[in-house]
Design goal:
The chain is mostly helical and about 110 residues long. About 95% of the residues lie in helices and about 0% in strands. The chain contains 1 helix and no strands.
Length: about 110
């Protein structure tokens, strides 16, 4: 039992050591590569903005008509959703209009 506890303690110490060594390596690599990242970021920013502009323009011309068509379909569907339930009322109003229009006006 004591041997198993000793082995567990060694494993825990080894794990802590690996975490510490990994953290130190990550810290050193971050400190070494930070200036390189900053310089490359400053140099590539205009290029990335130009690429974003080109890709955005292409997507606008490709997706724009599709969005426009979908918007028109949605508008037509919305209008139909409002008009279809009102069709009986429009029909009654049209019949009343036909009945009133056919009667002769009163002479004063």
């Amino acid at each position: 039992m004591a041997l198993l506890m000793l082995l567990a303690a060694f494993a825990a110490i080894a794990l802590v050591g690996l975490v510490v060594v990994g953290t130190l390596i990550k810290l050193v690599l971050f400190a070494v590569f930070l200036p390189i990242r900053l310089v490359l970021g400053a140099l590539l920013l205009p290029l990335l903005l130009a690429v974003k502009l080109v890709v955005g323009t292409i997507l606008l011309f490709v997706v724009g008509p599709i969005v426009l068509l979908a918007t028109l379909v949605a508008i037509i569907a919305s209008i139909a959703a409002v008009v279809v339930p009102l069709l009986p009322l429009f029909l009654i109003g049209f019949v009343v209009y036909l009945l009133l229009r056919s009667s002769k006006p009163a002479v004063a």
